[in-house]
Structure formats: C-alpha cells, structure tokens
C-alpha cells in the first residue's frame, strides 16, 4: 500500500468525468450503461487509457479507470448478479420504495419544501430489482473486461498505486427488494459472498481494492425513525457482512472509502463521525478514505486528537470536495493536510477527494482543476512538513 514516506502522496475517490462521446455511445436514455458492440468495447478501452494518462499528467500518484464502465457505483452490480427480476412498480409501491432508497429522508423532515421535485435517487431503468431466488455472481466477463482494460492502460505507466472500486453488501441491499431470503441478514451475507468474487479478482490481478461504503452513514438518513443505538445495531450487522466478504483478501491491498451519500443537499442531519468511527475502523483495510472537507464535516478533524488510526494504516482525508464548484486554493488544501499530518503523522496521510468528482461537479474542467489543486496543495504541504 502506498505511503507518504518522503512527501504527501495523492489519490482520489473514484468516478471521473466520462468523455462526451463515450457517454453518448454507452449510456442509454434510462441512464444504464450498455457495452455490447465492438465499437463500444473499443471506445471504452481507449477512454480508460486516456483517463489513466490524464491522471498521471495531473500528477496523481494513485489512479483508477475512472469507473467508466459503470452506470453508477450503486447499481452497476445489477448487470453482474443473477437471482432477481426487474418489476414495474405499482403507483402505490413506487413512492414507498423510492423513500426506502432515499438517504435524504431525515433531512426532508425539516427541509421538505427543498426536496419537492428533486428526485435525487432512482432504481435502474425505473424498475424495481426483486430477489426471487438464490443470488449468484454472473459478471465474470464484465469484471475481466474492466481489469483487462485498466491493466492495459497501466502498461508502462509510472504510478505508485492502481485501484479499482467495488461495492459493499449494505449498499447493494438498498437497491434490492427481498422476496426470497428469510431475513435481511441472510440477504446481506449472500451479497457479501457475491462481492467476494469481485474483491478477489481485483486483488489477484495485483490491483488495490477500494471498497465504496456509503451505506454505513447514509442508512442513518434513510431511516429517520432510528435512534443512534438502533442504527449502530443495524450498521454493525452490515459491517460484519463486509468483513465476511473480505475474508482472504489481502489487507495490504484494501482501502475503504466512506462518505455521507455525497448528494447535493442540506446534510443537516448526517450522523456525526464520532458515532461511527469505531465501526469504520473495525473494517479490515490498510487505508481509510473519509469525506473531510465539506462544510458539514470538515470540523471533525478534531476526532483524531483522541482517536487513533488502526495500527499500520494510512488516512486519506478528502481535502477537495464536490459540495460546490468552487475550486479550493492550494494553500487551503495544504492547511488541511498539515492539520491531519500533525495528528496522525505525515507519513500516514494521503491527499484525497471527498467523493468521486466526475458526476458531482458542474463540468469536467472543474473536476480536473480540483485534482490539479489537490496535487499543488499536497506539494505545498510536503515542502513545509519535510522542513520540520
């Protein structure tokens, strides 16, 4: 795993801006990605090569494939799993089900007028995935394609780390109604067995596995009736399922990314990091990436005055964000990095982003400018930290 031994290293959280021509070629009107033709496969392959080169050009030490082949990090696995069927939702069921998916439910109690006509979340193709038989993984070809495209793009490239993101059992559970398994726990552990296939293929290929785990904090927003103790019990079972999925996966090749859903909205009622930091650090990873620069969570750096990183782990605070199209100043980025370096050790800090910038800022040029300022800020912080 990458460490900041002589300077602050840099990475990002995943999704990058998809080229316009690739988007037009592979993304349907229902927002589902389809890669079936030779033309689509060839353009995807060349786009991955281009985005790896762009990340290197910007100066990032850790790069990925841009997540170009995925409809979204939430729903891409609907193409890789069998055992469910897509059903049209009835007029009565649709609003109930969409509320069950919506991490803005807690905020909506106070800011309901704000969310009127703001449909932030939807099911794949407007239909409801329903589990009707034992789930099984059938995405081997897509997974092999993604790994192959990425490794081809990395051939001869000088990078310190190459990572591929993958989903978590709890996040998959959000988008799947259960009509087969006896309990939610049975369903979540079945999803963990599926995801183990992806995790193992990524690490067997010599790549770093990034686990995207927004479901840990965002379930708090989905279920506004829960107390903190009830939520922690709910979340703990899903943490255990994720640990089950990670059995046999090298910890040294695993990093965990956690965010609060990353939707543009109030986030007034996000669960505080202090209530879940122990659950996050219970997940076996060598690096922990957290949303850390947006206006609702930046102050939580103080937690690290008393909370220690797991032994041997690195910390990837988001020091540029997606909450607005403002481009952070490099000195602000440097200040944020120095703050964490003074708390957890400069060698344990890696500069990152709050979440994937590609789908969340106003234009691709802004996403890339934010990554440029991330690199510039890391260099300024390094100059000061290594003079001490």
Which features does this protein show?
single chain, 388 residues, alpha/beta, TIM Barrel, 8-stranded parallel beta sheet, 3-stranded mixed beta sheet, 11 strands, 41% helix, globular
Say what the CATH topology is: TIM Barrel
Anisotropy-based shape:
globular
Q: Give me the number of helical elements.
A: 12
As a percent range, the share of helical residues equals: 40-55%
Radius of gyration: 20 Å
| CATH domain class | Alpha Beta
Show unreliable segments.
Answer: none
Give the class from helix and strand content and strand pairing.
alpha/beta
CATH architecture group name: Alpha-Beta Barrel
Distance between the termini: 25 Å
Q: Tally of extended strands?
A: 11
Number of domains: 1
What is the H-and-E element order? EHHEEHHEHEHEHEHHEHEEHEH
| Average pLDDT metric | 93
> Which strand-content bin applies to the residues?
5-15%
Strand order of the largest sheet: 1-11-10-9-8-7-5-2
Largest sheet: 8 strands, parallel
Concise account of the structure shown:
With 388 residues, the protein is an alpha/beta fold.
Description:
The chain has 388 residues and is an alpha/beta fold. It has a single domain (9-385), classed as TIM Barrel. 41% of the residues lie in helices and 14% in strands. It has twelve helices and eleven strands. It has an eight-stranded parallel beta sheet with strand order 1-11-10-9-8-7-5-2. The chain has a three-stranded mixed beta sheet with strand order 3-4-6, with helices on one face. It is globular and about 60 Å long. It starts with 8 loop residues before the first strand and ends with a helix.
């Amino acid at each position: 795993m990458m460490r900041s031994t002589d300077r602050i290293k840099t990475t990002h959280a995943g999704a990058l801006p998809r080229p316009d021509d690739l988007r037009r070629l592979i993304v349907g009107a229902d927002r589902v990605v389809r890669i079936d033709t030779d033309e689509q496969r060839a353009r995807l392959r060349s786009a991955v090569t281009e985005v790896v080169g762009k990340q290197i050009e910007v100066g990032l030490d850790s790069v990925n494939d841009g997540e170009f082949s995925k409809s979204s990090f939430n729903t891409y696995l609907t193409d890789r799993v069998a055992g469910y069927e897509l059903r049209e939702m009835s007029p009565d069921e649709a609003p109930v089900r969409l509320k069950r998916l919506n991490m803005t439910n807690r905020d909506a109690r106070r800011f309901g007028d704000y969310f009127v006509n703001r449909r932030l979340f939807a099911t794949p193709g407007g239909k409801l995935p329903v589990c009707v038989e034992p789930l099984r993984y059938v995405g081997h070809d897509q997974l092999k394609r993604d790994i192959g495209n990425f490794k081809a793009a990395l051939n001869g490239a000088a990078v310190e780390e190459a990572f591929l993101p993958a989903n978590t059992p709890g996040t998959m559970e959000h988008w799947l109604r259960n009509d087969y398994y006896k309990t939610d726990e049975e369903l979540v552990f079945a999803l963990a067995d599926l995801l183990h296939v992806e995790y193992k293929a990524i690490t067997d290929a010599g790549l770093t596995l990034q686990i995207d785990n927004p479901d840990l904090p965002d379930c708090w927003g989905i279920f506004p009736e829960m107390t903190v103790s009830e939520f922690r019990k709910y979340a703990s079972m899903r943490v255990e399922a994720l640990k089950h999925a990670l059995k046999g996966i090298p910890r040294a090749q695993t990093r965990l990314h956690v965010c609060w859903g990353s939707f543009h909205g109030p986030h007034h009622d996000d669960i505080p990091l202090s209530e879940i930091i122990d659950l996050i650090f219970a997940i076996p990873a060598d690096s922990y990436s957290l949303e850390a620069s947006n206006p609702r969570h930046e102050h939580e750096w103080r937690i690290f005055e008393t909370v220690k990183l797991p032994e041997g782990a690195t910390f990837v605070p988001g020091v540029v964000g997606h909450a607005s199209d403002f481009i952070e100043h490099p000195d602000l980025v440097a200040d944020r990095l120095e703050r964490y370096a003074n708390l957890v050790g400069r060698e344990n800090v890696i500069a990152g982003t709050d979440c994937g910038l590609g789908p969340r800022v106003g234009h691709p040029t802004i996403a890339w400018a934010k990554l440029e300022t991330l690199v510039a800020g890391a260099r300024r912080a390094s100059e000061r930290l290594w003079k001490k």
